[in-house]
Design goal:
binds magnesium ion; TIM Barrel; three-stranded antiparallel β-sheet; disordered C terminus; alpha/beta
Length: 316
C-alpha cells in the first residue's frame, strides 16, 4: 500500500475569524493511498494549531502511518484505524486523512459510496449551516450575512467585543433563518448566562462551546440555567470524552480532525446516542474532499447540522 501526499493552500474569500483569531490561508494535506491492485483512495487532513497540528506535522507523521499499512490489503478498516491510533496518539487530522482514504478505497473497490457501505440515506442528512465569522465592523457583518443569502441555516461566531450587537444584527438581516452561535470557549459562566436569554429571545437554536474546554463544572452550571441546548466542541474530541459530558452538555460536535478517523466518528455517534445527546458534525477549514468524508456519516446527525462545505465556507 503506497501513501502519497500533497500540501494544498486554501484561500478563504474573507479572513475567517473566530474568538481565538483567524486567517485567510489554510494549508491542508491531501493524501492518496494506492493499493497493490492499483485502486486508489483519497483523504484530506485539515490540521488545526489549536489541537497542535500544522500541515508540516501532518507530513512528518505520514511515514509512520504508512508503515502501519505496509503489507495489508486495506480491507480491515477497524483494525487498521486502531493501528493508526496506536502508532501516533494525537495528530487527529493526519490519521483522519488516512482513515478517509481507506474508506474511499473500499468504496471504490466495491463500486459504492461510503454512506451506502454503512446503509445510510443521504436524504436523511440534516441541512448544513453556513458559518459567519467574527467581522471587524457592522458594514462587514452586513455584507457577510447578505452574501450568505442562499443558506437557510447560519452559525454565528461569537466571543468578540460586540457579541450582543452581532446577534441582533444577524437576526434583523435574516429574520427567518435558523441561527446557532459558537463562542469557541471565549465566555465565562457569567457572560454566558447574560447572553443566553437574549439568544433565546432572538430564536437561536443552540449554543456551542460557551466555556473553556476543561470547565465541565461551569458547563454544567450554565446548562442547568440555560433555556437553550449547550453543545460541546472543544470539550469533546473522541468517544471516551462523551460519558463525562453526559448531564454536563446536551450534545457534541464531531470533527474528523479531532477524533482521528471515520470509525471513531461512528463510535462517537453511538456513544452520544447511548447518552441521549444531540450529535452534530463539524469541520475545520477544508476542501470538498475533506468534508466529503464527514458527509458520509452526516445522515446519523440528530437535530443539528454538518457545517461548512468547500473552501470559502467555514466551521471550527
Ligand atoms: Mg465549534
Amino acid at each position: 500500500m503506497k501513501l502519497s501526499h500533497e500540501i494544498v493552500t486554501l484561500r478563504t474569500k474573507h479572513p475567517f475569524v473566530i474568538a481565538r483569531g483567524g486567517s485567510s490561508e489554510y494549508r491542508v494535506v491531501r493524501v492518496t493511498l494506492t493499493a497493490p491492485d492499483g485502486a486508489t483512495g483519497w483523504g484530506e487532513a485539515a490540521p488545526s494549531r489549536y489541537y497542535g497540528e500544522t500541515a508540516d506535522t501532518v507530513v512528518n507523521v505520514l511515514p509512520l502511518l504508512a508503515q502501519k499499512l505496509d503489507g495489508t490489503d486495506g480491507w480491515s478498516l477497524e483494525a487498521l484505524e486502531h493501528g493508526l491510533a496506536r502508532a501516533i496518539r494525537f495528530n487527529g487530522s493526519a490519521r483522519a486523512a488516512v482513515s478517509a482514504a481507506l474508506h474511499d478505497l473500499m468504496g471504490k473497490r466495491l463500486g459504492v459510496p461510503v454512506h451506502k457501505l454503512w446503509g445510510l440515506d443521504p436524504a436523511a442528512a440534516p441541512p448544513s449551516s453556513f458559518t459567519v465569522g467574527i467581522a471587524p465592523d457592522e458594514p462587514t457583518l452586513r455584507a457577510r450575512v447578505e452574501e450568505a443569502a442562499q443558506y437557510p441555516v447560519l452559525k454565528i461566531k461569537l466571543g468578540s467585543t460586540w457579541d450582543e450587537r452581532i446577534v441582533r444584527m444577524v437576526r434583523e438581516l435574516a429574520p427567518d433563518k435558523v441561527l446557532r452561535v459558537d463562542a469557541n470557549a471565549a465566555w465565562t459562566p457569567k457572560s454566558a448566562l447574560r447572553m443566553i436569554p437574549l439568544l433565546q429571545e432572538l430564536g437561536v437554536e443552540f449554543v456551542e462551546q460557551p466555556l473553556p474546554p476543561d470547565d465541565l463544572d461551569g458547563l454544567r452550571f450554565v446548562r442547568e440555567r440555560s433555556a437553550l441546548p449547550i453543545i460541546a466542541d472543544e470539550s469533546c474530541l473522541v468517544a471516551a470524552d462523551i460519558p463525562k459530558l453526559a448531564g454536563v452538555v446536551d450534545g457534541i460536535n464531531i470533527k474528523l480532525a479531532k477524533c482521528g478517523g471515520l470509525r471513531e466518528a461512528l463510535r462517537m455517534i453511538a456513544t452520544a446516542r447511548a447518552h441521549d445527546m444531540l450529535v452534530m458534525a463539524g469541520c475545520m477549514i477544508e476542501s470538498s474532499l475533506g468534508i466529503t468524508a464527514a458527509a458520509a456519516f452526516s445522515p446519523q446527525g440528530r437535530s443539528a447540522a454538518i457545517h461548512g462545505a468547500a473552501a470559502g465556507s467555514q466551521a471550527t
